[in-house]
Design goal:
The protein is mainly β and about 130 residues long. It is built from no helices and eleven strands. The radius of gyration is 13 Å and the shape is globular.
């Protein structure tokens, strides 16, 4: 089964920017795609950051709205998260995920329980 694969994590100073990318298998081209984050070793505390539907409609979590931008390129099978104004509290493991929109009856919600397919995560470190 093809898997989602994140890239672009790394270390950045507070106030800096970073772009995360996710390789998305073709089979998820009509799925909701999203970015989530969690502290190491705390999978049950996975926090939704942003989601995007197949038509480009987006929704953001309160903590990142105005700083992070989600986008997708279905032709390149890619999902992106552009992060600006990074803060030390943004330091986390970041995951991309795919979910069937039928779970939410057609909408895409920032709800990790509806995302069945996950990447392995990429670490983002923010130094103050």
């Amino acid at each position: 089964q093809a898997k989602l694969l994140e890239s672009g994590g790394g270390s950045v100073q507070a106030g800096g920017s970073l772009r995360l990318a996710c390789s998305v298998p073709t089979r998820y081209s009509t799925y909701c795609l999203g970015w989530f984050r969690q502290r190491p070793g705390r999978p049950k505390e996975r926090v939704g950051l942003a989601v995007i539907d197949a038509d480009g409609g987006t929704a953001y979590g309160r903590s990142v709205k105005g700083r992070f931008t989600i986008s997708r390129d279905n032709d390149k099978n890619a999902l992106f998260l552009d992060m600006t104004g990074l803060k030390p509290e943004d330091e986390n493991i970041y995951f991309c995920a795919a979910g069937d929109p039928r779970f939410w009856e057609g909408a895409c919600l920032i709800d990790p329980t509806g995302f069945a397919y996950w990447g392995q995560g990429t670490q983002v470190t923010v130094s103050s």
